[in-house]
From TrEMBL:
Top-level taxon of the source organism: Bacteria
Keyword Signal: yes
Keywords: Signal
Signal peptide, first to last residue: 1-21
The protein, known as: Calx-beta domain-containing protein
């Protein structure tokens, strides 16, 4: 008798709990983020990771993710160099465009930095990059910055 009562109670619990309607909120925003900021550990005391490259590397490519439904047209994303956190000199240590494109029907774009070979000077310089987004796509607050350390 106890087994039957237990089974009936369990059945009633399952029947009544399965009928509860859940209204989960859906996020419909659009963000861009650095892949390296998502998968790498931040520098101690900072919100961004650091990637070290040699000045003889030539080109550094950083993946930028679109966190939203893919677009039917190309999206141009703006980015900037953050003065605080940057000791590298534009034109002397690096060159970069300030915009990147996430192609239509894609979730990934590539930010390219050309590292200038300054020879074996010794030491290093830092370049802190920040995604700025565009009119319809905002940068992710947690993953919008990456620092490149260029060793000489």
């Amino acid at each position: 008798m106890k087994k039957i009562l237990s089974l009936v109670t369990l059945a009633l619990v399952l029947v009544f709990s399965s009928c509860i309607e859940q209204d989960y909120p859906l996020w419909d925003g659009s963000l861009v983020e650095f892949q390296d900021a998502v998968v790498r550990t931040p520098v101690a005391g900072q919100k961004y990771p650091r990637i070290t490259v040699n000045n003889k590397v030539g080109t550094v490519s950083l993946q930028v993710n679109l966190v939203a439904p893919q677009r039917s047209t190309d999206e141009t994303i703006n980015y900037s160099v953050v003065a605080e956190g940057t000791t590298a000199v534009a034109g002397t240590d690096y060159t970069t465009a300030g915009t990147l494109v996430i192609p239509a029907n894609s979730s990934v774009g590539t930010l390219t930095i050309n590292v200038v070979n300054t020879g074996s000077l010794g030491g290093s310089v830092d370049l802190l990059l920040q995604l700025d987004g565009n009119a319809t796509i905002s940068p992710s607050e947690n993953y919008k910055q990456v620092q490149i350390r260029i060793t000489r």
